[in-house]
Amino acid sequence: MQSKGFTTRLVHADRTLNQPQDGAVHQPTSNSVLFEYQRVEELVDVFQGRKNAHAYSRQSSGSINALQNMLAQMEEGVGALTFATGMAAITTAMLTLLKHGDHLILSQFLFGNTNSFANTLEGFGIDVTLVDVTDVTAVKEAIKPNTRAVYLETIANPVTQVADLQAIGQLCEEHGLVYMLDNTMTPAFLFDAKKARASLVLGSLTKYIAGHGHVLGGAVIDTGLYDWTRFPNINEDYKSQPEEMWGLTQIKKKGLRDMGGCLTPDSAHLISVGMETLALRMEKCCTSAMKLATYLDQHDKVETVYYPGLPSHPQHFIARELFKYYGGILSIDLKPEVDCFAFMNELQLVLNATHLGDTRTLGIPVAHTIYYEMGAEQRAKMGISDNMIRFSVGIEDTDDIIADFDQALDKV
Ligand code: PLP
């Protein structure tokens, strides 16, 4: 199956990888929390790792494993873990791999909640440096003897900065650092995380992967490229596993088992069904986003359009190398004299809503909402202006989306 195309592999993945009974094409959803064994010795073997089976559904179950198999196959990785939300995946990976006294390099262009989590890490004695990752030299200069990992987003939310992901991947490899890439904006169909030498691909399943605004979820996928024997924080107990599984074992044991932010089986089912149409939805929303960005870029009431597909975008040439399409997110600054709230209130098709990666086109004034709490100084460092509006382009017919923007801009 591996040589087949992206969608062919995805729509047959549940059936072929997980082999549900009775010819079912979907893994059945099982909500059993507990798993019974006829003989107590078997239960002991499960606990002690001699038998590969489920003990308690906070750590694993058939429905969850089925989705994890599909995600691992999608990224061509060695394994995947799923979590209740994208934030649960991100925070669990960081808290289980890092410890007091370690240093972490974080992109200064990050989703607001990940950025805010940096304070929590600092409270636990983890030294965090925020870096302009569009400058590879700045990343290199930030590396210290106790640096353990570098974390960034493939296309940053909401200003759409794109770092040279391959050059940073090479840097991480040279220094033995875990390279964590949040690819929420560019799932596997758009971007080959292994080509950029990512160690862990992580982020939200709530967005493009599930795709319909009806379920929360997150994942950590190990690409198999990182040599975990170079990582000093692996607990001795987990080293009985194959070396390529050391990282995921630690995240699973310390994270899912001890911290407990697991996905529910019903959510896993909804996500796996949504995922089957990932490429179709992405092709549509990215094509529309490109056309909308081009239209807005030429409009006299729009000051700036932030979209990596535009030749004027500062990292357009890097984005062109990295991504199959330029994503479904674009942000704009209207001309100072145009009231951004009035414009948004005139939009009829576009929903005023927080979220992205939906089938519907969504808009949000970011400085007043998601990035409000961080304050003006931090927003300025991230390139977020007071009137910036972020749009997540949906799969509606392109002409209808552009017509809606056109009529709203006419009225303000
Ligand atoms: N990472 C990025 C880039 C995001 O945009 C988001 C949410 O918008 C998240 C992570 C968090 O995902 P979730 O809402 O599933 O917790």
TrEMBL record:
UniProt cross-references to SUPFAM superfamilies, sorted A to Z: PLP-dependent transferases
User: What's its EC?
Assistant: 2.5.1.49
Q: What class of enzyme is it?
A: transferase
Q: Which Gene3D superfamilies match?
A: Aspartate Aminotransferase, domain 1, Type I PLP-dependent aspartate aminotransferase-like (Major domain)
Extract the Pfam families matched here.
Cys_Met_Meta_PP
The Gene Ontology terms for molecular function here are: carbon-sulfur lyase activity; O-acetylhomoserine aminocarboxypropyltransferase activity; pyridoxal phosphate binding
Tell me which InterPro entries the record gives: Cys/Met-Metab_PyrdxlP-dep_enz (IPR000277), PyrdxlP-dep_Trfase (IPR015424), PyrdxlP-dep_Trfase_major (IPR015421), PyrdxlP-dep_Trfase_small (IPR015422)
Required cofactor names: pyridoxal 5'-phosphate
Q: Which GO terms describe its biological process?
A: transsulfuration
Q: Which residues carry this modification: N6-(pyridoxal phosphate)lysine?
A: K207
Tell me its family. Belongs to the trans-sulfuration enzymes family.
Q: What is this protein called?
A: O-acetylhomoserine aminocarboxypropyltransferase
